[in-house]
From TrEMBL:
Designated name of the protein: Acyl-CoA desaturase
Catalytic activity reported: octadecanoyl-CoA + 2 Fe(II)-[cytochrome b5] + O2 + 2 H(+) = (9Z)-octadecenoyl-CoA + 2 Fe(III)-[cytochrome b5] + 2 H2O
Transmembrane segments: 52-70, 76-96, 192-213
GO molecular function: heme binding; iron ion binding; stearoyl-CoA 9-desaturase activity
InterPro entries (UniProt xref): Acyl-CoA_deSatase_haem/ster-bd, Acyl-CoA_DS, Cyt_B5-like_heme/steroid-bd, Cyt_B5-like_heme/steroid_sf, Cyt_B5_heme-BS, FA_desaturase_dom, FADS-1_CS
PANTHER family found in the cross-reference section: ACYL-COA DESATURASE, DESATURASE 1, ISOFORM A-RELATED
Keyword Membrane applies: yes
């Protein structure tokens, strides 16, 4: 059947993606305006609602809550509901997401059948539909073509995108050729409604009914309400994981890492990592982080059910982490006052420098750079007398150990008092240093183009303490 259908594949479109004619749910007339292109009014709002989805994710759970009021909760049913919750949740996280949407590992046929079955029990659409949307989400994250873009609001990314009709013309295209060739995926897609009823409702009802006579409890708690919890938990990957937490690998898009999201979603909460390394079978990379989906895949590997687990080298992962740290550091650095850049300072003649100092301005020359210390004299930690004695002089040697070997902090502070560069040979050297401060982009400019002045690298610092005190 599958090979028959494969021959009916549509021709590839420009971006190399293909569709699969026999599995398309409905053909749209792309020339006619879609309902989403008309604004919502009191008269047409019901046409904007996707009633089938609304029924499955809102109406049925509401009926379940009402029924629960009259249905006593049997202990065994409660325990089974929790166990089945984990199984159906894994169907989505380990199956739909990490196996089929991202091919982060390979599964043997029995494992595939198990994941497709319990995944259907979570009632979140077929593997094929889900993975198509998820691949579009990764390809077009945060853009118009992202089916659940958090930029359209937290509630939209959580549930709005399913409750409201979507414009098929704006749907991001992705290649799902591999899924169309997977018989388990094709079977589940073509028989999806039967799979949902069997695994979502009939199976849990039968287990509780045949097991301990609690048919009604099985239907209400392990069926309907368990479906509601699994759905809401996995929807959190689209909403909460793009809204709450840190961005240790890249902060240009919305995905974030947070332990709360991980706890809710069977380990899918390390979403910043996941968007950077989507084909890694792990979402959490530290052993102490909560990722039961990863632990399950690892266990299946040990049991011979899963193989070819994909993992990025820690070298690659750490590069991303360091670059993001660097970016944060650069942002911090850019907020600080490092003094006027040397090549923006005026050139001052030695005689003008001396004359101005005589007129009462507290000018000091250090390593060819003139600093105005007038307002600092009273605060000088070494006392007024020492700093005053350097006014109108070249204090390079005094500052660099002739009298006192000034600290890194002192050089930093001094740089904020720069007012000019001394003419007379020195400025050439200063310019050279300014060049190396400004032009060697990779070494001395940060990612925002700001100059980096490393500790001990200030222009006022000379490598050897100078012997003579009165260089001028
Ligand atoms: Zn995401
Ligand atoms: Zn993903």
């Amino acid at each position: 059947m599958a090979s028959d259908a494969q021959s009916q594949q549509a021709a590839p479109v420009l971006d190399g993606t293909k569709d699969y004619k026999p599995l398309r749910s409905r053909e749209y007339d792309l020339k006619k305006p879609h309902i989403t292109e008309t604004p919502i009014t009191w008269g047409n709002w019901y046409k904007h609602v996707n009633w089938l989805n609304t029924y499955f994710i809102l109406v049925v759970p509401m009926m379940g809550f009402v029924a629960a009021y009259w249905t006593p909760l049997h202990l065994y049913t409660a325990v089974f509901a929790v166990i089945y919750y984990f199984n159906t949740g894994l169907g989505i996280t380990a199956g739909y997401h990490r196996l089929w949407a991202h091919s982060s590992y390979k599964a043997t046929l029995p494992l595939k059948i198990y994941l497709a079955a319990v995944g259907a029990g979570a009632v979140e659409g077929s593997i094929r539909w889900w993975s198509h949307g998820h691949r579009a989400h990764h390809r077009y994250t945060d853009t118009e073509k992202d089916p659940y873009s958090v930029r359209k609001g937290l509630l939209y990314s959580h549930i709005g995108w399913m409750v409201m009709k979507q414009n098929p013309k704006r749907k991001g295209r992705t290649d799902i050729t591999d899924l169309n060739e997977d018989p388990v995926v094709v079977f589940q897609h073509t028989h999806f409604l039967k799979c949902v009823i069997a695994m979502g409702l009939v199976f849990p009802t039968l287990v509780c009914g045949l097991g301990w006579g609690d048919y009604l409890g099985g239907f209400v708690y392990a069926g309907i309400l368990r479906i509601f919890v699994v759905q809401q938990a996995t929807f959190c990957v689209n909403s909460l994981a793009h809204w709450l937490g840190d961005q240790p690998f890249d902060d240009r898009n919305s995905p974030r890492d947070h332990v709360i999201t991980a706890l809710v979603t069977l380990g899918e909460g390390y979403h910043n990592f996941h968007h950077e390394f989507p084909s890694d079978y792990r979402n959490a990379i530290q052993w102490w982080q909560y990722d039961p989906t990863k632990w399950s895949i690892w266990t299946w590997k040990k049991l011979g059910l899963a193989y070819d687990l994909k993992q990025f080298r820690s070298n690659e992962i750490e590069k991303g982490r360091v670059q993001q740290l660097q970016k944060k550091l650069d942002q911090k650095r850019a907020k600080l006052d490092w003094g006027t850049p040397l090549d923006q300072l005026p050139i001052i003649h030695w005689d003008d420098f001396v004359a101005e100092a005589k007129n009462g301005r507290g000018l000091v020359a250090i390593a060819g750079v003139i600093h105005d210390v007038t307002d600092f004299i009273k605060d000088h930690p070494g006392g007024k007398a020492l700093i005053s004695s350097a006014i109108g002089k070249d204090a390079t040697a005094i500052f660099n150990g002739g009298v006192y070997l000034h600290s890194n902090a002192a050089h930093n502070l001094l740089s904020t008092m720069r007012v000019g560069v001394l003419r007379g040979g020195c400025e050439v050297e200063i310019w050279k240093r300014a060049q190396s401060e400004n032009k060697e982009v990779t070494i001395v400019n940060d990612s925002t183009g700001q100059r980096i002045v490393r500790a001990g690298d200030q222009v006022t610092r000379t490598t050897q303490p100078l012997a003579s005190a009165e260089a001028a």
